[in-house]
Design a protein that fits this description.
Number of strands: 7
Largest sheet: 7 strands, mixed
Shape: globular
Helix content: 25-40%
Oligomer: single chain
Order of helices and strands: HHEHEHEHEHEEEH
Strand order of the largest sheet: 3-2-1-4-5-7-6
Radius of gyration: 16 Å
Number of helices: 7
Distance between the termini: 35 Å
Structural class: alpha/beta
């Protein structure tokens, strides 16, 4: 087994110690959430709160961080197995239920930052509103526009107060979903979250 210090030896100097003390919540463990969670684990985030009610289906495998052997398993359980293979010391809180606005304060109360990784626009909206209402001073990083393929130059990060939007801001899933494009947005979400956590620590 790789020793934990060796796992993070190539990290950006000064980031590992900060990230190991951090807790990141992920609302949704699909194309955005599962890939962002892997990036956060590889970066050294010490604790993740994973929330998703769904089970892995074959149609998920074109863009989500799961494998054929995961089909039928709750997404939170399957993802937890993969994350522990990357970093056995990572702390994980698994919530296998369909979230409602009233759940946000209790489930994500320990999170320093939340990654919004829902599919439907209306669910994204109520989640952002519930988070900002419960934790007005804490950041949330949302995915907004991941459908289709190509048009990489249209994918960007937009900030509105404590809300960061990653994506092209317009495309929807009716265009189909490409692993590469979904992955770009998921990595942007993870990158924004990591940057916020590290910069916030340095300013403290």
């Amino acid at each position: 087994m790789i020793k934990q210090p060796d796992l993070f030896v190539r990290n950006v100097p000064g980031s590992t110690e900060v990230l190991q003390r951090a807790t990141v919540g992920l609302a949704g463990c699909g194309g955005l959430g599962s890939n962002a969670a892997v990036a956060l684990a590889r970066a050294g985030v010490g604790r993740l709160i994973l929330a998703d009610f769904d089970r892995v289906e074959p149609s998920n495998l074109n863009r989500q961080h799961y494998f054929l052997s995961d089909v039928g398993k709750p997404k939170t359980d399957a993802l937890a197995e993969h994350l522990r293979r990357i970093n056995p010391k990572i702390e994980l809180k698994l919530i296998s239920k369909k979230l409602a606005p009233s759940d946000i304060p209790s489930i994500f109360g320990a999170a320093d930052i939340l990654i919004e990784a829902f599919d439907r626009a209306e669910a994204k909206q109520w989640l952002i509103e519930a988070w900002c209402r419960a934790f007005p001073d804490r950041p949330i990083v949302a995915g907004n526009g991941i459908g289709g393929l190509g048009d990489t130059d249209l994918i960007t990060v937009r900030r509105m107060g404590n809300i960061w939007f990653c994506g092209d801001g317009s495309s929807d899933m009716s265009l189909g979903l490409c692993a590469a494009r979904v992955g770009i947005v998921a990595m942007m979400q993870a990158n924004v979250a990591i940057s916020i956590l590290v910069k916030k620590s340095h300013l403290a």
